[in-house]
Amino acid sequence: MKVWKGVVPLALAFGLGAAPLHAQGVEFSLGGGIGFPLSNFDDIAKLGWNGLAGVSFVPTGWPVGIQVDGQFQQYKLDEDVVGASGLKDRFLIGTGNLVYKFKTSEESSIRPYIIAGGGVYNVKTTGSDNVGTVVGTDNSTTKFGLNAGAGFDFKAGSAGLFVEGRFHDVFTDGPNVKFIPITVGVRLGGH
User: Fold this and answer.
1) 155, 112 in Cβ contact below 8 A?
2) Which candidate, 71, 125, 66, places its Cα nearest to that of 94?
């Protein structure tokens, strides 16, 4: 019940602010989806999930804008590989990106885009292992990384939906951690 107390005012604020922000080219994004571990990370992790909240600005008449977003991602670790059950890798991510929106006709409600940038990735293993030892109190690490991807906006006035896939490459001390989240969500504002 407490979650709804925070979500409802946030949704109302986005909805009420969408019209004035529409004129300025500011968009707010909320979304979630699934995450696919890649490369060496795929050897130890299973399919995950993600959440995204972001704000973007594309000046009127420009194809390029900026987007700043925060993401949460979580992947369950394969107990056969890591030797313990119940462990998860969770990522808190903040990225700054350039967004290029392809020119489409004024009548088109579908607009493809590409996105790329860099960010800060906080990685932490959480859960408890087979013998009941709680993990996650002191294993948090923050690294830099890059991301790039593509998506589609489906606009209907000052609101719309988006579908996006982004490749993330986190620079760790060992092999880089790589994954692709597929995110579906809603955008409010913009042109």
Assistant:
1) no
2) 71
* Pairing of β 141-156 and β 134-135: unpaired
- Domain span at residue 39? 2-189
Q: pLDDT tens across 17-40, in order?
A: 444 444 457 999 999 999 999 999
**Which tokens is 26 given?**
């500011």
pLDDT in tens, 156-186: 777 899 999 999 999 998 899 999 999 999 9
Measured distance CA(17)–CA(188) in Å, rounded: 9
Q: CATH number for the domain including 53?
A: 2.40.160.20
- Name residue 75's beta-bridge partners: 48, 89
Number of domains in the chain: 1
